[in-house]
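User: tokens in, sequence out, please.
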């Protein structure tokens, strides 16, 4: 069975004890934070290796590294084949800095996008700008509702129901 399936079966289990799942995620988030802190020290360096080599490098188990690779995948310059990866699969952690920051904001992972290592990569204004861009990209703007007796938005002066709303 591919590593990613094992990770997702374990981390998103419907049948697991809720306390065990909470402990798994609490432990995972701490390790994830440490890995990102290391990666962000040299953000332009592309870290490569097998899943096992990277797990050893960052002092985590294979499943934690698999979860990390699953999480960072959308922020990579070149996506890894995470669906089929095994321990000996070579993967890259070459990430797009702006995309990674925005994805951390989208995931509401304040423990990640507030890491002090970001201060060396982007100044405060740039971080605020990226934060705002990400938040605004998820905002849905609904057009104001037009009721039958409202003036038609075309400017004809007629009621909507007698103008463009006639066939609605």
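Assistant: Sequence out:
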């Amino acid at each position: 069975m591919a590593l990613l399936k094992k990770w997702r079966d374990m981390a998103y289990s419907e049948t697991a004890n809720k306390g065990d799942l909470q402990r798994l995620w609490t432990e995972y988030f701490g390790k994830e934070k440490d890995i990102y802190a290391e990666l962000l020290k040299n953000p332009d360096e592309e870290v490569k290796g097998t899943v096992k080599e990277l797990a050893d490098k960052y002092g985590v188990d294979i499943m934690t590294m698999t979860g990390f690779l699953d999480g960072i995948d959308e922020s990579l310059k070149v996506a890894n084949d995470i669906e089929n990866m095994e321990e000996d699969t070579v993967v890259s952690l070459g990430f797009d800095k702006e995309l990674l920051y925005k994805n951390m904001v989208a995931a509401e992972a304040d423990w990640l996008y507030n890491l002090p290592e970001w201060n060396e990569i982007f100044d405060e204004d740039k971080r605020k700008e990226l934060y705002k861009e990400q938040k605004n990209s998820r905002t849905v703007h609904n057009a104001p509702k037009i009721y039958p007796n409202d003036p038609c938005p075309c400017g004809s002066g007629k009621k909507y129901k007698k103008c463009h709303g006639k066939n609605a």
